[in-house]
User: Which sequence fits this backbone?
């Protein structure tokens, strides 16, 4: 095979491998990735009737029927608001993948598409942050205090598995050691609109 053909095949392989790094569809909205999670997922995997999409533990029992109804209304409104944005995001990502493989596509063309993608993602993040704030506002001061206490205790005890982290085999094993080292040696991840409000994964889903 001639050197020129080898070069062309290598270039094509590189371009296709880059496409594989792009998500096939719109990403689900995950409100929190650092510590505890208030999950507000994309349409089709929508959040539950609690701020995190399916309350667990004592907080679920403390929510009144009126609170659950309000949270469900907020959930439906949030899904209705972001559904068109997810459709737009998917279309833009498809256009980006298509443009990458066109020989006449310039760098500026790709950057323009990426700017549009980033803009829609920002709109989704802003809507998500508002959704979290509205749902947290439904909770009473006592419930918020309970949620805050749970969040702080999880941080001190090294994550979800409180007992096992300190008394079980995982604490002395390799995985337990690295988990402990990571918790103690690294600062908490910053809370942003992409990471959402702290402290809701265990109690609020």
Assistant:
């Amino acid at each position: 095979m001639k050197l020129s053909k080898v070069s062309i095949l290598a270039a094509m392989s590189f371009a296709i491998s880059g496409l594989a790094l792009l998500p096939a569809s719109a990403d689900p909205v995950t409100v929190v990735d650092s510590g505890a999670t208030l999950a507000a997922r994309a349409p089709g995997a929508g959040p539950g009737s609690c701020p995190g999409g399916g309350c667990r533990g004592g907080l679920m029992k403390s929510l009144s029927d009126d609170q659950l109804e309000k949270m469900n209304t907020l959930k439906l409104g949030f899904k209705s608001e972001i559904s068109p944005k997810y459709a737009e995001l998917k279309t833009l990502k498809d256009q980006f993948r298509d443009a990458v493989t066109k020989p006449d596509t310039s760098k500026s063309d790709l950057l323009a598409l990426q700017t549009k993608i980033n803009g829609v993602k920002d709109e989704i993040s802003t809507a998500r942050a508002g959704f979290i704030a509205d749902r947290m506002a439904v909770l009473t001061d006592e419930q918020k205090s309970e949620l805050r206490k749970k969040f702080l205790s999880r941080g001190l005890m090294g994550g979800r598995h409180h007992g096992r982290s300190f008394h079980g085999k995982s604490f002395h094993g390799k995985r337990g050691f690295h988990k402990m080292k990571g918790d103690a040696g690294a600062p908490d991840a910053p809370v942003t609109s992409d990471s959402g409000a702290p402290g809701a994964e265990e109690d609020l889903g």
Summary: Residues 65-100 form the longest helix (36 residues). Residues 6-54, 162-205 have pLDDT under 50 and may be disordered. The radius of gyration is 22 Å. DSSP finds nine helices and no strands in the chain.
